[in-house]
Amino acid sequence: MKSLQWRALLVVAILVVGIIYLVPTLSSGLPSWWTKILPKDTIHLGLDLQGGMHLVLEVESEKAVENTLERLTEDLKENLRDSRIPFTQIARGKGHTIEVQLPGAEQQTQLKDLLDKSFPSLEWRSGETGPEGMKVLLGMKAAEVDHIKKLAVAQGLETIRNRIDQFGVTEPDIRAEGEDRIQIQLPGVKDAQRAVALIGKTALLEFKLVAEGVTPQDIKDGKVPAGVKIYPMKHEDRTTGQTTTTQIALKDRTLMTGEYITNAQVQIDHQYNTPYVALEFDQQGGRIFERITEANVKKQLAIVLDGVVSSAPVIQDKISGGRASITGSFTMEQARDLAIVLRAGALPAPVKVLEQRTVGPSLGQDSIQKGLLACFVGGLAIIVFMVVYYKLSGVVADVALLMNILLIFSGLAAFGATLTLPGIAGIALTIGMAVDANVLIYERIREELKLGKTPRAALDAGYDRATVTIIDSNVTTLIAALVLFQFGTGPIRGFAVTLTIGLVANLYTAIIVTRVIFDYFLTERRMRTLSI
Asked: Does position 170 have pLDDT exceeding 70, yes or no?
């Protein structure tokens, strides 16, 4: 008697918890006290149900290797100078190589010692002596190249995920695909162009000095000294609002990058009522920026974003405190997106959009209606069949089935899972499997009743003998569902999620809920026969 009461209380408690988790999905106008103490998460709809974007990006990982070689080339120059090892020229070679021109063969031992000490990723390829000295070819190790490429994809994945999280997309699906591709699904995104621009922006922020003594005519004629490059620069006319692009000569050496940024926020320039992005650096970045500004007072420091100069102010004095700002011809939306990508960090390599699809909300709504209709028709047919074939026992099975469906949807809300069109198919499959468990139990009970046992004895024997079979079949299917969830992609994972929750709910309702109902009628109502 006490056992039945406790089991009944457990069933009611789980039913109430399920309803509580489902209420936010069914009702949008919840009172304030509800959101403070009770669950407020709703069932999230996937890309195929609410519309959105599907993207496949290719990470140009070779560019990450090239960037690393550029940095190694500059670092090698600095180390040779600091070590007082004479050299004539250092430049990038073909492939993953660096060419070093030494005055003579006597410097090669010093160069090898420096490589062993400070440049483990480089290896000695060849050394040829000629009339101009010794030409040395250094190469990046193959293992290092592979590591940089894999790291570029991994860092790109994480950077894109951080950007999308700050963009405000609910339940995005971001995963690696193959060796150098990233698949992205953004449910509910309506501004596709802005999303692509935000995701694919490299956001490489650099601080470079403006080359002194280079006139506009020199830039036009292409007469720039060594170590100087030409960059485009955007200007905005404050009176007309028009933006023009000119060219500016910058020193090739990058004094500082955006890797030290800890925060980026949009601020308003009250003098011109225009937005700009305020930057904050970490302690190391603050010290570097202070040292740069102190050493270059009265010189122009260009702020370069993805190869375009946004501004080139004159350094009036040493700037301490670890703060800077990026001004330019930004709209408020552009400034917000720039702040997002700077906070999330720069992509280690550019990305290229290989595939872009947009799913309209009308198609998603049509899918929802047809999917729910299929579940409703299938469920109704099963309910009618169970009542006709098993009579009152069929009604008990139908009650458990309805509770099963409720627990599936409440489970989706509780775990923050995403409901997709294949997920609706998983629910339809679970409905069939739910009554299948009851059919096994009922047929066992019928067999026991035909042997002349009492309803109580037949019920006990039917559940005892069918339970093992039910657990075996559901657990094996559950293992398959978990494998699909672990290794499958978007649609397959959606199917696996609802199937997994449905299988767990099925075991609970078929074995526990229906047994509680039967025990109640046989114990409390003193029923002497089973309508089965």
From this structure: no
CATH 3.30.1360.200 segments of the chain: 201-357
- State how far the Cα of 226 lies from the Cα of 48, in Å rounded to an integer: 55
Distance (Å) of CA 384 to CA 281, 376, 391, 440: 68, 12, 10, 18
Topology classification of domain 2-51+361-523:
Multidrug efflux transporter AcrB transmembrane fold (1.20.1640)
| Whole-number Å distance between alpha carbons of 405 and 394 | 17
Q: How far is CA 5 from CA 1, 10, 354, 524, in A?
A: 6, 9, 61, 11
Q: Work out the burial of residue 269: count CB atoms within 10 Å of its CB; fewer than 13 is exposed, 13-18 middle, 19 or more buried.
A: exposed
Instruction: Say if residues 233 and 313 touch (Cβ distance below 8 Å).
Output: no
* pLDDT for position 336: 82
Who contacts 462 (Cβ-Cβ below 8 Å, separation ≥6)? 441, 442, 444, 445, 447, 448
How confident is the model over 119-142, as pLDDT tens digits?
A: 888 888 888 887 778 888 999 999
Stretch 485-490: mean pLDDT: 75
Q: Which two tokens stand for residue 422?
A: 């294949």
DSSP 352-381: EEEEEEEE-HHHHHHHHHHHHHHHHHHHHH
Report which of 445, 429, 442 is spatially closest to residue 382, judged by C-alpha positions.
429
Name the strand (E) or helix (H) holding 456: helix 455-487
Pick the closest to residue 424 from 370, 385, 383, 476 (CA basis). 370
- To the question of domain 62-144 being in CATH 1.10.1660, the answer is no
Alpha helices in 201-300 (DSSP H): 216-221, 283-295
What pLDDT is recorded for position 250? Answer: 92
**Which part of the chain is CATH 1.20.1640.10?**
2-51+361-523
Residues 131, 348: Cα–Cα separation, whole Å? 40
Single out the residue of 217, 102, 161, 184 nearest to residue 340, CA to CA.
Answer: 161
Q: What tokens appear for 102 in the block?
A: 């030494």
3-state secondary structure 198-210: HHHCCCCEEEEEE
| CATH ID of 201-357, from 3.40.50.300, 3.30.1360.200, 3.30.70.20, 2.40.50.140 | 3.30.1360.200
For residues 331 and 287, the answer to whether their CB atoms sit within 8 Å is: no
pLDDT at 383 over 70: yes
Answer yes or no: is pLDDT of 477 > 80: yes
- 132 burial class (0-12, 13-18, 19+ CB within 10 angstroms)? exposed
Rounded Cα distance between 521 and 516, Å, is 9
pLDDT score at 392: 87
* Residue listed under structure tokens 């190790």: 141
